[in-house]
Amino acid sequence: MSGISFLYVASSNDESEAFKTMRKKHVQEASKFDDSFYLTQIFNYLSDTYNSFTATCRNALKQKKEEEITDYVRRKLQNNEDFVLDGFKVNSEARNQDKAVGYYDLKFENGDWLNQYFVLECKPINDTKSRIDAYCKS
């Protein structure tokens, strides 16, 4: 427990003031982390999620549409208790008929990663040239 410190908040009739004090201390501590910290965490969770898929699941996902892959990955992450307790959330893009350029499939955020987020596309790319070319348009 050597790296753990505790903050004493005096009892008060104003619980919101105690919460503000704790939140302020937490934000000060969390501000020590940079973008690479959050990106590393996101990629670790994505890697763990992918590695948890069985071979059968991976093969089935390769045949799915982009939206189905996105939904599957998003649900897996949202149901990962550690992902949620670490303050992360993941959302899917709004689905409409007229998608604007620059839309994403998954958007990752963290309550402590102020004013920042990371977006990711989920594509069913395999080693066939047509699938790769469809995604890598210049």
UniProtKB/TrEMBL annotation:
This protein's name: Uncharacterized protein
| Species of origin | termite gut metagenome
